[in-house]
Amino acid sequence: MMQIKRRPETALALAHSLPPAAAAAGEAETIIRVSDLSIVFDTAQGQVIAVDRVTFSVNRGEFVCIVGPSGCGKSTVLNTIAGLEVPYSGEVTVNGRLMQRPRPDVGMVFQQPHLFPWKSVRRNIAHGPRMLGKSRGEARAIADGLIEMIGLGRFADAYPHTLSGGMQQRVAIARALANQPRVLLMDEPFGALDAQTRSVMQDNLLELRERIDATVVFVTHDLDEAILLADRVLIMSAGPGRVLRDLGVNLPRPRSNAIMLDPAYIALKKDCLDLIRTEGRRAFDQSSAG
Amino acid sequence: MRRLNILIGALSIPLFLAAWEAIARSGIVNMVLFPPPSIVAVAVLEWVRSGQFFSDFGASLYRVVTGFTLGAIAGVTLGVLTGQFPLVSSLLSPLFHILRPIPPIAFVPIVILWFGLSEAGKLFLVFWGVFFTVWLSAHIGVQKVDRGLIRAALMLGTPRRQMLQEIVLLGALPYIVVGLRTAVSISFYTLVAAELAGAFSGIVYRIEIAQQNLQTGQVMGGLAALGLMSFVADRMFATVAERTVWWR
Fold first, then answer.
1. Using CA atoms, how far apart are residues B162 and B169, in angstroms rounded to an integer?
2. B149 touches chain A (CB under 8 A)
3. What CATH class does B58-244 carry?
4. Is residue A68 part of a domain?
5. pLDDT of B74 strictly over 80
6. Is residue A203 part of a domain?
7. Of the ranges A74-78, A214-218, A271-275, which one carries the lowest mean pLDDT score?
8. Are A104 and B167 in contact (CB < 8 Å)?
9. Are residues A93 and A227 in the same domain?
């Protein structure tokens, strides 16, 4: 697996520059606001509350991980921030505007790469800019810059089915970044990869994150992944989905997978595990009793 | 073992022809009704030499190609519309589902009433046979487009028009191509009905005339020509299809 290369100094590089001085100085600017969000699904067994009055906000430039067991509604929350799903009650705003449908300032990477199989790597990445009205040449320049950034220069003209799962997912990340979104949503993007590829991808993402301006909300069921990547971890519980705890991760950056041996990391992980275990037992007792 | 298979495969048709020749000339069967391949070959040669073969071949090819093309265009267009827009589907799908199971050949009598023995009637029959198969495959193809691709495209700001043209149409293409290939054989099948119902040229027309004149060699030659034509069309289509949906 290749490492992410140093960013080329192009127009794209300027557009993706580091957070502005205001954010760096600690004047937190809220970019995502999830208020009292509930989502109800209609199933054959009647209505099921998937997400129950979830409230949180994310500041500009933050990297927030939502972690929780499967079925806790974490992906549903993410889909609502994406505008792919509509709240049952409550609301989601991004950049002060209500999310009702997908918007180009919010990008998303899914668990599966979902690359367009009939398009080359370059044209997959150029798709977004083309749809937003950029000329062929501009879109190509943006794509080439991102291909360089994800270290797939040799594969610009390759088609998705010829790439490995990890490479496909890097293309999917580049494709989501091509529209220069303010917010990048990631729904278990490394969940389908093998353990080795996953840890390389995590390190790649940490590097990438140092060089882009986007705010990231990352959903995972892997606690290690969440602590490794995040500035903040939201721990959710299942049935119905609620936010149990909102934890700051004050580990130094830049980070890599090596941080998992750090005592501060281990202490934080232990706290989280205790919380999850207590909650898991409560949910289990409740379902057994019922 | 592999070589033996290839060898036996190469012998398959010559062996069949030799057995046929032997049986036809053995006196067990009536040679007028069951002529040997050598007589069939002479009949075909005569057919080609007289120039009639080319006008017959041309007439049949024209009917198949035109009817197929019109049916395919209408089928893909309406299939994409009913697949994508529930309102259009509610309006048209019940009708199509009622008409589709009626064998196209059953329409021969009414086609003769409407169109007489004109070319239009023959094109209509081929069109009718092709249309429903292609419509259904396009309709199902559109509904089976990977939802993940559509969500990804939505997140990238793809407008409705491009979504339909690029993502939905290409996503449905593997299904559409299978439908079109099935429709190739259906178009030959309806061609037979159309030409038997009354024509003035065409390969099946020639078979029918030869039958009335007890030219059994010519009948068999016509069958061989029709089979070859259908086979080549299918192979050509398979090659084109493979290149169209190469990403599969």
1. 10
2. yes
3. mainly alpha
4. yes
5. yes
6. yes
7. A271-275
8. no
9. yes
Going through A61-161 in order, the beta strands assigned E by DSSP cover: 63-67, 89-94, 97-98, 106-109
Does A164 reside within a domain?
Answer: yes
Domain count, chain A: 2
Chain B's closest residue to A83, CA to CA, is B155
Chain A CB contacts of B158 below 8 Å: 127, 131
Model confidence band, residue A11 (pLDDT cutoffs 50, 70, 90) = very low
Please tell me whether residues A88 and A201 are part of one structural domain.
yes
Taking CA–CA distances from B163, the nearest residue in chain A reads: A131
The pLDDT tens digits of the residues spanning A114-144 come to 999 999 999 999 999 999 999 999 999 999 9
The ipTM of this complex is 0.85
Domain boundaries, chain B: 58-244
Tell me which residue range forms the domain holding A150. Answer: 116-180
Based on the fold, state whether residues A199 and A252 are members of the same structural domain.
yes
Average confidence score pLDDT of chain A:
87
Is residue B78 within 8 A of residue B133, CB to CB? The reply is no
Backbone conformation region of residue A119, classed left if phi is above 0, alpha if psi is from -120 to 50, else beta? beta
Pair B207, B219: CB distance under 8 Å = yes
Closest chain A C-alpha to B198 CA, distance in angstroms: 46
Determine the Cα–Cα distance for residues B146 and B171; give it in Å rounded to an integer. 7
Question: Given CB atoms, is A10 within the 8 Å cutoff of chain B?
Answer: no
